[in-house]
Amino acid sequence: MPGKMRRMARVLRGPSRRCLILPMDHGPWIGPAKGIDRPLEITRQAVRGGASALLISPGFARLVMEEMGPDMALILRVSITPGLAPEATQESPVATLETALRLDADAVAVSIFFGRGGEVAMMRYMGELAEQCGRYGMPLLAEMIPPAEKMYQPEAIAHAARIGWELGADLIKTTYCGDPDAFRDVVRATPAPIVVAGGPSRDEQEEDLLNSVRAMMEAGAAGIAFGRRVWGAPDPEALLQRLHTVIFAES
After folding, report:
1. Model pTM score
2. Which domain CATH number covers 12?
3. Pairing state of beta strands 79-80 and 92-93?
4. Model confidence over 70-103: pLDDT tens digits?
5. β pairing state of 140-145 and 171-174
6. Residue 48 is part of which domain span?
7. 150: DSSP letter
8. In the chain, how many domains are there?
9. Strand (E) positions, the chain?
């Protein structure tokens, strides 16, 4: 489909088909944390830093759309984790495919957190969303997170990623096991491109982070989607520039 091909080409850039996604969809879950408390400013830093896509909610997108410019892809979060609610174990659908089309999004995103309960309902929702996306040429990014006790086990990562692809996702966002050889097997077992999730901020040296991303790319990842580890950094713009070099200039 020409529409889906065009949108996918905006998310996965160049002959290497790689991406540097900056997720800033954390507000409904953790509130206006420092780094995303000023959406316009962090978006400007993302543009200057070379992020290729933003993963954001409908409200966030409406506010920052003009700052994004014509080259940055929009991945619209259509389900969110309601952080103040007792039901905040899985995400809840909050926006429709029509919203994504009206905002000229390049993909929609939905998550399943295994081991928390409610997975079957979310799988049903994701499958229905995949069918709708297929009718309108909209790529679907599925964030597939293994159970907490198996978060970084390659077998669990591969299983979670495979479920997302089997449900019809075009892109998979999931965790990294820390072992390039084992992650290479995860990539081989999942026909959809795999983007590595960043997880919480960590006390790490920047060079260690860059080396870790370099290993992910060498293992076959299509890119990264680091949120808190970027917008929670002292200088998000500078960190994005260095990540951009690792992902694109070294490809």
Report:
1. 0.96
2. 3.20.20.70
3. antiparallel
4. 899 999 999 998 888 877 788 899 999 999 999 9
5. parallel
6. 2-249
7. G
8. 1
9. 19-23, 53-56, 73-77, 79-80, 92-93, 107-113, 140-145, 171-174, 194-197, 223-225
